[in-house]
Design goal:
The structure is a single chain. With 385 residues, the protein is of the alpha+beta class. The chain contains eleven helices and ten strands. The chain has a four-stranded mixed β-sheet with strand order 1-4-5-8, covered by helices on one side. A four-stranded antiparallel β-sheet has the order 2-3-7-6, with no helix packed on it. A two-stranded antiparallel sheet has the order 9-10. α7 runs antiparallel to α8, α7 packs parallel to α9 and α7 runs antiparallel to α10. It starts with 10 loop residues before the first helix and ends with a helix. The model has no long low-confidence stretch (mean pLDDT 95).
Length: 385
């Protein structure tokens, strides 16, 4: 791959990357296959990651965090992707759950929860999706009804990453069923709350080390003090934070595309057919050249948006564009590269095969590709008026 120096990340990020890469290679990669078979990453790995400074990198020191920035979080995302790991769900924990608490939580909520999230003793999940409400968050049915100084929550969530391990679940609920999007609130449910229960650890075609669960709320009583922000502000919070989530998916997809091209170059240099290596065929070079050009464009796009996220000006529609382009590209690259591996690429133990199956969900999670197109299309026609 042709590489250019990246200017969006500084020297401090490079130093941090070296330590993150060492941790990933020594503490995570050796256990990856065992965790995929188990369908979950043990809590010990989370605590070790917390000790190594990989969790919630941009949480302020006042709340137990290292006080880094989104660039440090990006380094963790990229190194996990580079290692082709399907778990653990550090990105959900750090780039989603912790950011909701840090951005929208009260001082008391931050003191209660963020230090444990930083050190790995508390694991976070976010529960938005329901059996009948995926990308259409306005259609959620989970209710939270006020009863004195508590909410009583009834409903069901599904496909929840970190669902088996989670101690804290940021739960999207309808607190006013007549107000549409303005009736959604975010309430942090602690897994010890009576009435909260986990369903089975869901079997998936990919991301097998990532525990993914159904969650049930059977009249769960939660203090009103666990609500993030004001009642009815949840949908706005979700829209604000989804921009970051979508950028993170774009970053991960770009790294995996780069890695897949590298794996394929190495493989085609060694594999032979008809008396010469696969790399000697013009078709191989043309396929990889095309994919490399597209991936370079994805890298330029994501680095530009990383800079915007770091200075607080990331536009949600631009983030949606990046997610749409980079996750589609990730799937394209992995599919076409797998083809160049031949039968070897279909074997489950090969990195290209695992990455191929893991990648498919990225065009669905965090807002399906079709939703990204709708969001982008609306902006185009709005701007054309």
């Amino acid at each position: 791959m042709l590489e250019r120096p990246r200017t969006v990340l500084g020297q401090e990020h490079a130093i941090f990357r070296a330590s993150v890469r060492r941790f990933v290679e020594t503490e995570l990669v050796p256990h990856a296959m065992a965790w995929e078979e188990a369908g979950i990453v043990p809590r010990e790995a989370w605590r070790k990651a917390g000790e190594a400074g990989l969790l919630c990198c941009d949480v302020a020191p006042d709340h137990g965090g290292p006080g880094g920035d989104f660039g440090h979080c990006t380094v963790v995302t990229e190194e996990l992707a580079r290692a082709n790991l399907s778990g653990p769900g550090f990105v959900v924990h750090s780039d989603m759950v912790a950011t909701y608490i840090a951005k929208f939580g009260s001082d008391d909520q931050k003191r209660r929860w963020l230090p444990g999230m930083v050190d790995g003793s508390l694991i976070g999940a976010i529960a938005m999706t329901e059996p009948d409400a995926g990308s259409d968050l306005k259609g959620m049915r989970t209710r939270a009804v006020t009863d004195g100084d508590h909410y009583v929550i009834r409903g069901q969530k599904t496909y929840i990453s970190n669902g088996q391990n989670a101690d804290l679940i940021v739960t999207a609920c309808k607190t006013d069923t007549t107000a549409g999007a303005h009736g959604v609130s975010l309430i942090v449910v602690e897994a010890t709350a009576p009435g909260f229960r986990r369903g089975r650890n869901l079997a998936k075609i990919g991301m097998k080390a990532q525990d993914t669960s159904e969650l049930f709320y059977d009249d769960v009583r939660v203090s009103v003090a666990n609500r993030l922000g004001a009642e009815g502000q949840g949908f706005g919070m979700l829209m604000t934070n989804l921009a970051r989530e979508r950028l993170v998916q774009a970053i991960r997809g770009t790294v995996l595309a780069e890695e897949a091209i590298g794996w394929t170059i190495a493989h085609t240099r060694e594999r032979k057919a008809f008396g010469r290596t696969i790399a000697d065929f013009q078709n191989t070079r043309f396929v990889l050249a095309e994919l490399a050009a597209k991936t370079a464009a994805a890298r330029a796009m994501t680095d530009g948006l990383i800079a915007l996220q770091m200075d607080g000006t990331l536009d949600p529609v631009e983030a949606g564009m990046a997610k749409l382009f980079c996750t589609d590209l990730q799937c394209e690259v992995l599919d076409r590269c797998l083809q160049l591996f031949g039968g070897t690429g279909y074997m489950a133990e090969t990195p290209i095969a695992r990455a191929w199956t893991d990648a498919r969900v990225t065009r669905i999670a965090g807002g399906a590709a079709e939703l990204m197109k709708e969001i982008i299309g609306r902006r185009l026609f709005q701007d054309a008026r």
